[in-house]
Prior knowledge:
The complex is a heterodimer. Chain A is an all-alpha fold. Chain A contains 3 helices and no strands.
Amino acid sequence: MVFLSIPADYIPIAIMFVVAIGFVVTTIFVTHLLGPKRKSEIKLDTFECGIESQSNARLPFSIKYFLIAILFVLFDVEVIFMYPWAVNFLKLGLTGFIEMLLFVSLLMVGFIYIIRKGALKWE
Amino acid sequence: MEYSELIFKVIFVIAVFAVSLLIAMYSTYAERKIAAFMQDRVGPDRAGPFGILQPLADGVKMFMKEEIIPANADKALFILGPSLMMLTACMTGVVIPWGNSLIINGQEYILQITDVNIGILYIFAVISIGVYGIMIGGWASNNKYSLLGAIRASSQMISYELAMGMAIISLVMMTGTLSLREIVLQQPGAHWNVFYQPLGFLIFLVCAFAETNRTPFDLPECETELVGGYHTEYSSMKLGFYLFAEYINMFISSAVISALYFGGFNMPFIGGLGLSHNMLAILGVVFFFAKIFFFIFFFMWVRWTIPRFRYDQLMNLGWKVMIPLSIVNMLLTGLFLLWRNGLFHF
């Protein structure tokens, strides 16, 4: 049994996954069969407000979005670190709180730095 | 896991799946009716009495429409995008505690598909995968509007996920658990978390709007500049999946908000009525759904009331207001909890 290797609590998640994937695949397949198929070259062209499409869409875009993604990865990792602390907050008491203050202040130094550098400036 | 329990779980999974699809379907109807009401129109009224069959008509139409995959799109990814979106939308309902528990023949069945002890983390994980659905779909379309819509959507969703995560941290500090069922059970009667975490609730609510790409945060599908945003090139049921997933997400967000901050299936004053355990559980489910419907209505109310943000305003709100606010909220919660539990000593 494959099920034996995963904890019992997670079996329903696997069942839901199977149900959801079954639904998605069936629906995609059925609509593929049901709809009319009258293709033409212009219909399959990329939509650009009715004018002839200009070149490919694999274009460079604003670096800001990429920066946001990188900052997200950094900050999200920090947030994940806070979860175990938050769960045990009352057991850790004041010591834990002061430790987290240190952690957050370091985080804030980085945060203020990126704001000062203008990484979050959208003009 | 017992055999009977497994069968119960399978039935329950299918029921939750069906109910979320049904509610998502009728949310589209409700959205149009509410929009009509707010703009002094009639709304859909042709299909069935009061247009009640409109969602079915829409669904059939989606099924019967021609499926167009643009010639220079990436075919496999083009199909994967909406499928992933729909899949993740359906997967989040698993950890929502719909009700307390039913006792049948002396055996207790909890009204939740599964009570994993990392419920909140699970929801975050699945929501994060939803971003891929949008990004893959938008990129694979090979259309400039789709690409712009997709990168806007992803950077908006990841930005607000940070504040959302931090808002939840203050809640977790109070409850000391990540299991949604336990969080709900800790709010008996009217001891709802919203009274202890008003700021956290506000942050969470705003972030939930941003995560589901609803107005005022619907820049990814900003019609006036991006046509349809990331789903510009989509047609037939693949478009249906994107639209449908948005409504399922709205339903699940409403459920999460109700469970985390509004006591889930708890309701004041009904404990004193002397009802049996099963009766209370069923009433609890009714109350939980009432709260969910209120929040779905709230989502729609806001949509037809507040205009859309500009992109720089959106990003500023996310990074420069929401994140600092949620950190302040976290520290205040920490101080309050230490003071209340008399832990101000080493």
